[in-house]
Amino acid sequence: MEIQPNSEDLVKLAHYKMPFGKYKGRYLVDLPLPYLVWFKQKGFPKGTLGNYLDTMLTVKDNGLEDLIRKLQKEYPRF
User: Whose CA is closest to 52, among 22, 2, 6?
Assistant: First the structure.
C-alpha cells in the first residue's frame, strides 16, 4: 500500500495557527520542537489540531520545515 500525501491538507497544515496557550496565534511550523515533544508526552489533543501537531513533530524531526515554509509562500491563504 502506497501512502500519498494530500496536497490540500499540507497547505492547511502550513497555514494552521496554534489556537491557545503560550504560542497562541503562531503557525505550527514556528512552534519550538521541545514544545511539540512535550505535547506528545502529555498526549496530543483529539481532532485536527492533534493530528497537525503530530504531523508537525514529524516534519521538524526530519528537518522539513523549509517545505512547510515554501508552501506558505507559494500557496498564500486567501
Answer: 6
CA 24 to CA 28: how far, in whole Å? Answer: 10
- Please tell me the distance from the alpha carbon of residue 23 to that of residue 27, in angstroms, as a whole number: 9
CB 29 within 8 A of CB 68: yes
Cβ within 8 Å of residue 7, ≥6 positions away = none
Q: Using one digit for the tens of pLDDT, what is the confidence trace for 29-73?
A: 999 999 999 999 999 999 999 999 999 999 999 999 999 999 999
What are residue 17's DSSP bridge partners?
27
Q: Most distant CA pair in the chain: distance in Å?
A: 40
Q: How far is CA 25 from CA 3, 21, 35, in A?
A: 31, 9, 15
